[in-house]
């Protein structure tokens, strides 16, 4: 595959302003002539997430939209949206972590699909990964394929959901960001921390620990 050929027409990227979706945005910019980034406002505890998304889209000169999904918080109170529920510091032994918003990826992709079809766009990009599957069922490949088929049937349209990170781990996600010329951007400008701190984050929450472990493994694996 020629990484430098922007031979595809247009894509909508589900974009949170975090490490994974920012890497996907850079990936999309490499492969598509037209890229639209789509963020969702679902009452995130940290509004900084949307600010990061806006800043990154601005810097990359990518068209950016934010859709109101505040109903998610009405449906599924959880630690990412509710101040009164604290984020689990450790992953639970069984069940899903309390940072799960049931059906979030399904809803985001579905709204992204409706948005894309309006624009005559077929390709949807999402940063979900089965490799670091940690209790999020709608990050799995089987789910994405199933939803792709469902969306096609629902709208009588041929969507193509692309998942550049599906089979790579966090270390190789850093590697991909580097290959795409975005290592510094992803390191310093994205927000993955559950406590709302940009870049390297708080260092304590599960998301920060995963991010740091991935970066350290990237350094080890590729001798940076
Ligand atoms: Zn953190």
Give an overview in words:
Helix 1 (19-31) crosses helix 6 and helix 4 (104-118) packs parallel to helix 5. It is built from eight helices and five strands, in the order βαβαβααβαβααα. A five-stranded parallel β-sheet has the order 3-2-1-4-5, sandwiched between helices. Helix 5 (141-155) links the parallel strand 4 (123-125) and strand 5 (160-162). The protein has one domain: 3-Layer(aba) Sandwich (Rossmann fold), CATH 3.40.50.620. Residues 90-97 have low confidence and may be disordered. It starts with 7 loop residues before the first strand and ends with a helix. It has 224 residues and is of the alpha/beta class. The longest helix is centred in the C-terminal third of the chain and has 17 residues, at 206-222. The chain has helices at residues 19-31, 48-59, 71-75, 104-118, 141-155, 170-179, 183-189, 206-222; strands at 8-14, 32-41, 63-68, 123-125, 160-162. The structure holds zinc ion.
């Amino acid at each position: 595959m020629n990484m430098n050929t922007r031979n595809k027409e247009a894509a909508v990227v589900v974009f949170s302003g975090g490490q994974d979706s920012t890497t996907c945005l850079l990936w999309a910019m490499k492969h598509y002539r037209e890229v639209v980034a789509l963020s969702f406002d679902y009452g995130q505890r940290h509004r900084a997430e949307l600010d990061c998304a806006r800043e990154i889209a601005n810097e990359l000169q990518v068209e950016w939209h934010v859709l109101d999904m505040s109903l998610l918080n009405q449906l599924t109170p959880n630690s990412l949206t509710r101040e009164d529920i604290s984020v689990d510091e450790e992953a639970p032994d069984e069940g899903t972590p309390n940072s799960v918003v049931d059906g979030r990826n399904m809803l985001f992709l579905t709204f992204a699909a409706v948005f894309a079809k309006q624009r005559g766009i077929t390709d949807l990009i999402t940063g979900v990964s089965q490799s670091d599957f940690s209790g999020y069922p709608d990050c799995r490949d089987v789910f994405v394929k199933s939803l792709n088929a469902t969306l096609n049937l629902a709208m009588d349209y041929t969507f193509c959901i692309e998942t550049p990170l599906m089979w790579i781990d966090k270390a190789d996600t850093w590697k991909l960001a580097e290959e795409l010329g975005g290592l510094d951007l992803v390191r310093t400008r994205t927000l993955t921390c559950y406590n709302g701190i940009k870049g390297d984050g708080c260092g304590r929450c599960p998301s920060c620990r995963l991010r740091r472990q991935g970066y350290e493994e990237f350094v080890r694996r590729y001798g940076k």
